[in-house]
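User: Sequence in, structure out. Go.
Assistant: Echoing your sequence, followed by the structure tokens.
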Amino acid sequence: MKIFSFFKNRYVLFLLTLMIVLSGCDLFDHASKKTLKTAAEALEKNDISSFINQFDLKACAVSEIKNVTDSNDALSTLDHLGKTLGLGGMEDIIGNVFDVENNLRQNFRKKVSSGALQKECAKEENSGCPWVPSALRAAEIKEFSSNAAVARVKTQTQATTWLGLCRKKDRWVIVGWADMEETARRFAEREASPSPEYQNRERKSDNSGKDSGSQGKERRPMKGNDRETDGVRL
């Protein structure tokens, strides 16, 4: 009787342990995968703020410009030439990181709120549109440092996109996406340990638009007949 009671107790203990493990399986996920799960939930709830909060849109804008540059031979050559001459890459020459960032934000706001984004991506047969809740939850994560990772997202149409993720201020965010794992990894590495050149570019982007109006106008030298009252030329 004691033997039966012993095995019964062990069996109950085993079941309880199994239930705890299964219910708490999220504890064993990569920390970076929680970002993708949160994005998936936001898509299902049409929660714009929560979805956008999983991105560093400025970093994504730089990554998007890089994707366009790499896919175009002429732009790639100009990018290389600009760096050789000390003019910077295409993102510096074009100077529209802010515009791309704003376009991404507006596109997400419009399509997440209506549910159109996940519907489009569910039918898309090419990479670059991984925003499908089930695909984001099933993504394969590769963390190659404490601050950088990539995620392989595969939709039901077999379209595969690689996301670059970076840990910033103790949380993981998406910093770009690409067709190839190597490219997404470069995006993540760039943000995990940005070069001085990138930091300077980021500061320039932050200051863009501030120098407007009277700050952007060069004051002409005052002539002998000119006089100035309360800052106004007479």
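User: And one key feature?
Assistant: The beta strands are 140-143, 148-154, 160-168, 171-178, 228-229, 232-233.
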